[in-house]
Amino acid sequence: MKTDIILCGVGGQGILTIATIIGEAAIKEGLYIKQAEVHGMSQRGGDVQSNLRVSSSPIHSDLIPLGGADVIIAMEPMEALRYLPYLNKQNGWIITSSVPFVNIPNYPDMELLKSEYSKMDNVVLLDIEKLARDNGMPRSSNVILLGAAISKIGIGQNEIEEAIRTVFSNKGDTVVEANINALRIGADSL
After folding, report:
1. Please, how many CA atoms are within 13 Å of residue 131, restricted to the half-sphere of its CB?
2. What is the pLDDT of residues 117-161, one digit of tens each?
3. Cα–Cα distance, 139 to 48 (Å, whole number)
4. Distance (Å, whole) CA 24 – CA 128
5. How far is the C-alpha of 70 from the C-alpha of 103, rounded, in Å?
6. In what order do the strands lie in the sheet with 47-55?
7. Residues 6 or more apart from 133 whose CB is under 8 A from it?
8. Closest to 91 (Cα-Cα) out of 121, 119, 50
9. pLDDT-based confidence at 39, cuts 50/70/90?
């Protein structure tokens, strides 16, 4: 088992929380994990990106090579395109929010972004913000996105749910259950 994941988005969207959940699940499963993070101007809405490598065999580098990512999980659709050179062109997947986080004056038109995505195979565009609002969990859109990507990361849903219990345990049962429900909503959305 080997899965190379690029997580990306804008500061404050919960990218590093997704990385923590996947990492916790991997460790509990006895898998090897390496992670490298890039924090941009996250407090000003800059890009945040994490390379997350999970394997049943030892991993020698924490960086994913060009063309090596099995999946890009993106909280922001333009950010996913930024890391497209890292995606495995034959069987890599992009799982991304369909709603832009417009934080720059020259943000591209969403129709242009959708046009770029329409040229690719293995793309899931999902309105995670709407799913989060409609289900009364506006702060869990990142975990909904993780649920949508769960079949591509190589770790089972039960293991991810256990990791959510561990990661959010200090926030109380209500937060834990809300995030488990968010994961299930994302997994059931496809």
Report:
1. 28
2. 999 999 999 999 999 999 999 999 999 999 999 999 999 999 999
3. 18
4. 23
5. 28
6. 32-39, 47-55, 2-10, 71-74, 93-97, 123-126
7. none
8. 121
9. low
Helix (H, G, I), strand (E, B) or coil at 161: helix
Q: What is the pTM of this model?
A: 0.94
The least confident of 39-48, 127-136, 147-156, 175-184 is: 39-48
Distance between CA atoms of residues 185 and 129, nearest Å: 12
**Closest among 45, 57, 52 to 20, alpha carbons compared:** 52
Angle, CA of 25, 81 and 52, to the nearest 5°: 20
166: amino acid identity, one letter: T
Q: How far apart are CA 190 and CA 187, in angstroms?
A: 7
For helices 157-167 and 141-149, the axis angle rounded to 10 degrees is 150
pLDDT tens digits, 67-89: 999 999 999 999 999 999 999 99
From CA 2, how far away is CA 96, in angstroms rounded? 21
What radius of gyration do the chain's Cα atoms show? Answer: 16
Q: What is the dihedral of CA 25, 46, 63, 68, to 10 degrees?
A: 90
Specify the DSSP class assigned to residue 122: S
